[in-house]
Amino acid sequence: MSCCAPGAEMALDLVNTGSVLPSSQEIRLASRSLGDDLHQTDLSVPTVHCAGCIQTIETALGKLDRVESARVNLSTKRVSVRWRGDEVPPFVVALGRLGYQAHLFPSEVGDKDRTLSDLIRAVAVAGFAAGNIMLLSVSVWSGAEGATRDLFHWVSALIAIPALAFAGGIFFRSAWNALRHGRMNMDVPIAVGVSLAYAMSLYETINHGDHAYFDASVSLLFFLLIGRTLDHVMRERARTAVKGLSQLAAHGAMVLRSDGARDYLPVGEIEPGMRLLIAAGERIPVDGKIIQGTSDLDCSLASGESTPKNVAPGEAVQAGVLNLTGPLTIEATAAAKDSFLAEMVRLMEAAEGGRAHYRRIADRVSALYAPVVHLTAFATFLGWMAVTGDWHRAITIAIAVLIITCPCALGLAVPIVQVVAARRLFENGIMVKDGSAMERLATIDTAVFDKTGTLTLGQPRLVNASSIDPAMLAVAGDMATHSRHPFSKAIAGFAHPGGQYKFDAVTEHPGFGIEATGAGSTWRLGRRGWAGWRARTGGEGKHGGTVLTKDGFIVATFDFEDALRADAKAAIGQLSHAGVSVEMLSGDTAGACGEVAEMLGVKDFVPCLLPSGKVERIETLAKDGHKVLMVGDGLNDTPALRAAHVSIAPATAADIGRNAADFVFLRESLLAVPLALDVSRKAGHLIRQNIAIAIVYNAVAVPIAILGHATPLLAAIAMSASSVLVIGNALRLHGFGANATLQVIQKVGRSAVSYSA
Amino acid sequence: MTTLLYLIPVALFLGALGVSGFVWALRSGQYEDLDGAAERILIDRDDKPER
């Protein structure tokens, strides 16, 4: 067992009662074929965090049949498993047994990040050039004269050329692009400053001048590229992680032709009137009508309702729901583009306007900054021309102004803080899509929660376990391990390890329950009316009454309840404390909402809402001037996630929901929400401080440059100092984050204890 | 002064060597899991090192 998954045995229970494991079909669809019968599956395992974890996982998975190799990537918290054969090895179950919860992660073919390696290469080249030119410049500053100085200047010029062409290309292209479309961005002053400085230095070198600015123009590029790279890392890494975390909507279905032939067709090619075969454990790909078979459907993705729905021929089913127990034949009534799923996507796109007007702080600052810089430099040039009439001197000073106002500190200020903050959040199991999400989260004053699947786990939990005969509970547990039904999963958590009871045969009756025979008795676990065929039944409970019977007589009754998500109450308390008003929206009945609201201390809730109703509620709040945070998981929450100012979804959310959300939290605890808010607000403070530092620096440095006192040495020192100051300030977030991690671990530890009690 | 004529090229060559080494390491994926690399040193392995 690993050192760092405390109570991994407990985690076993959590997994059993916890999220729906991806079926082997889903895993196969998400894997990538490497040719030669070899497949690769990428899994996201958020709780991996040390050498012990790496070793435990790699050795355990490596021992499985048909698994070629398993490799843990600790930075991205992924495990890639290579396996052979048609059958998928049970690695998700194996991980669950070790205490690690895994989510599917479809591997993208071209998943190498081209831009990032381009940026890093540019940083390396610029760094090399800057370092060498600096060395030569130091010699010049310390008094090299005449021919030696000229030689050094020429060598510098030569080194700077490839650096400008290669590393500077990123800025030149961006600046040219902006100018061509009649816009201004931060890259324009950089491009102008860098190329003017180079041209001027070259002119000086040719004419045996004293000063050259090669070092300034190249080290400027170097610093800016660092900022650019950090910004990119921050956005891209989390974005692909979020994109990849997929539980997969159905990608296709088995179509039954009129001549009896069977074809597997992708979703896009399914047309109304086709008959589809849906096996137990598969998702229904399009809206349809059942023509054969009975089963239980998990509609939580579509409606947020966690209790499985029993269905029979003639009933309509919606795309995206999970078929739990029996095979079904359905007739498609709509093409994929007209289905419920597509309807949600349309609603989502319509609701998009909510945040379209938002502009990142860096963009807003640079929109002001660029014109000011150019005007200042130009005015300096005009001023010196007017005073001295020496155009050479005027241009030199204007360039010094342009360089000294370099948006270095500004270019670093925002991304460095966001990277540090995103890192903190990532370590706490929260992924951020991009920096603007944190900026938006910092401004919220209202939080809206969905009920099912967000405040609650969306999975039933056995509540009367203590009042059931332990022997009977164990029998039920062993039977329940044979089924994927959510109630079964809840009961299966109480099975004896290894299975104590030996049954001769176990069969699942779709829509009714599980039947097992052993030692001359017939056991049934399921619906009261079906299982207790000799007992006088009746008194169907809240969930239809699930019972265990022996030869037709009821020996145990099970009551289920949707469990609250860990720390839900604490999270809501912390949000209120942070000055955020909390509201709950749900598609569920007023009674069910009221119960949860009271338990959590939420005053405002709106029940019985359709997906569009949630969007309307959020829009009303926005119209009243509130900045709304939406926390939700279901497909039905997706439009609301998009409509809100900023949104958070749990990793168990529907694929589409995760894509719509700005933050995704991987762990069960809802404390992720106040933590994300806290870190974002802290990050916001630091960003504003950093911008202030950059502005103060300019206020001091620019007059010096305008007055013509800025030598290259002074410019280089000032520039580096401002950058280092900004980076140092951003790193202060580090200490804060460490405390927060500790808090969450303590909280999680406590909740795990109460879970097992 | 004449020493500079070969010292500068030598310095530049060594620098370029460093840059190309870095680019090679980057291409061969050695920067993909920095945290993992730091932790893996703690793992005992009987078998040969992985590629």
UniProtKB/TrEMBL annotation, chain B:
InterPro entries: Cyt_oxidase_maturation_cbb3. The lineage of its organism: Bacteria, Pseudomonadati, Pseudomonadota, Alphaproteobacteria, Hyphomicrobiales. It holds the Pfam family FixS. Keywords: Membrane, Transmembrane, Transmembrane helix. The keyword Transmembrane helix applies. This is Cbb3-type cytochrome oxidase assembly protein CcoS. The chain crosses the membrane at residues 6-26. It comes from the Bacteria. It comes from Mesorhizobium ciceri. The gene is ccoS.
